[in-house]
Amino acid sequence: MTLADLSLRSLGTKLRAREISSVELTRWTLDKAEASNRALDAFIRILPENALAAAEKADRDFAAGIDRGPMQGIPYGAKDLFDVAGLPTTCHSKIHKDAVATRDAAVIEKLSMGGAVLVGKMATHEYALYGPDVQLPFPPARNPWNFERITGGSSSGSASAIAGGVLRMALGTDTGGSIRTPSSWSGTVGLKPTFGRVSRRGCFPLSWSLDHCGALTRTVEDAAVALNVLAGFDPLDDDCADVPVSDYTSGLGHSVKGMKIGIARSLLVTASDEVLAGIERVADLLRHSGAEVFDVETPPLAWFGTIIRALLLTEGHHIHEANLRSRVHDFGPLSARRLALGAAYTATDYLACLKVRRMLAQRVSAVFSGCDILLCATTANAAPRYSPVPDPFNPQGPSMTNPFNVTGNPAISVPVGLNSEGMPLSVQLIGKLFDEKTLLQVAQEVETLSGWTEIALPDYTA
Q1: Which of the four pLDDT bands, split at 50, 70 and 90, describes residue 207?
Q2: Which among 429, 422, 427 is positioned nearest to 455, based on CA atoms?
Q3: With CB atoms 3.0 to 4.6 Å apart as the test, which of 249, 291, 300, 400 could cross-link to 224 if both were Cys?
Q4: Rounded to an integer, what distance in angstroms lies between the CA atom of residue 362 and that of residue 355?
Q5: pLDDT per position as a tens digit, 56-76
Q6: 130 falls in which pLDDT band (50, 70, 90)?
């Protein structure tokens, strides 16, 4: 067992008992990050001086009896869309390679105030949009389970570092699935909170109406611990919701007996046979635990894909329009071509999409009037192999993560086993708006019943 095998809770217990110091834990993490990065490229920038200074402060606070919360003294990483004062927020792009932030992002502030230790900035797809693209200033992060498979995006570095046994938690963003997709393909847990649950202030945007901030973690319990730190109202973020925050760990370990779980069949139309078999297995496990599991009817998957594509490209083009006009050749070719599509949408198109989006959200809300949780897949297949990237001018197939960026519901990807080629498979669970507590309760039951907690991380060094 290594330090990476200890949960966030266990690490916190050992730190408070002075069985290990934050400096020792941080030095181990920094060494592991440096060594693993030769293979994984999960980190754009490793921060030894900043990290050790934060670790020393955490140890001083522990010695003085000051308890700042569950992440105190524990290392984490941040996708390089989050501002950290004095450091560049590169967005994995040549254009922002030297864009030094003057203030911490809201979630970085929360973690710093809670005594957490930032050890590095993580690789992403350029502007969280499209990839992997090798024609960028930094290499794409690799999948520790198999270097011939992609990690998924756009929170690729965060997923790679967790699956690679370097970190227990790393920050990510999710506009159409960018937390949940890499989590699915790397065998990690990815929680997209409710829209507005976590502040986006200081995080470089892709789509104002679709972006969510959250965490990728090793386990569901780790996800609950992280959300306890990240969640909360930020009056400086106009889209942050002033809604009470729960103790998200308080439902963990409770029975799912009597819960109503709806299988969203219409969202599974692109799923492979192996993924569908995983869904049925999880459904059976939940039934045996006393949950009521039944099929529900949602709008078709393609409807959500059409709406999210239009909103993302229109809003993304608006954000990047000036640089597209003046520095288009400084973008990677994939993101430049994808963002260019946004210019084709009219104001009438955009307003029509907003109208349909409202209807879709109402339809999903009606489904939740009859169930507590929705069950579907996160991705249609296990991680695909590296291959020539499709033409970004051609429409992509709808993603099973898209619907819940459209509606804003909390959604989590939970690994449940390995496929016939030894790659992780996952399911996606969706909760009612602002009910992450119940979502995490069911997610942990799925994680445990599936046997995932008994599966070791990949030995990518071999």
Answers
A1: very high
A2: 422
A3: 249
A4: 11
A5: 999 999 999 999 999 999 999
A6: confident
Q: Is 49 exposed, middle or buried (0-12, 13-18, 19+ CB in 10 A)?
A: exposed
Q: Is 178 a catalytic residue?
A: yes
Identity of residue 401 = T
At 349-376, the pLDDT tens digits run 999 999 999 999 999 999 999 999 999 9
155 catalytic? Reply is no
Query: Contact 168/11 with Cβ under 8 angstroms?
Result: yes
Q: Would you list the DSSP string of 177-213? A: STTHHHHHHHT-EEEEPPTTSS--TTB--S-TTT-EE
Tens digits of residue pLDDT in 247-261: 999 999 999 999 999
Q: How far is CA 99 from CA 73, 82, 172, in A?
A: 28, 12, 19
Kindly name the residue from 57, 79, 110, 192 that is annotated as catalytic. Answer: 79
What percentage of residues in the chain have a pLDDT greater than 70?
Answer: 98
Q: What is the pTM of this model?
A: 0.97
Distance of CA 116 to the CA centre of its chain: 19
Catalytic pick from 22, 93, 158, 178? 178
Q: At which residue do the structure tokens 């970085």 appear?
A: 108
DSSP E strand stretches across 140-264: 169-174, 189-192, 212-217, 260-264
Please confirm, yes or no, whether 121 is among the known catalytic residues: no
Of 93, 154, 156, 199, catalytic:
154
- Check if the beta carbon of residue 94 is closer than 8 Å to that of residue 152: no
Q: Which two tokens stand for residue 450?
A: 């599936």
Assigned CATH for 7-302+349-454? 3.90.1300.10
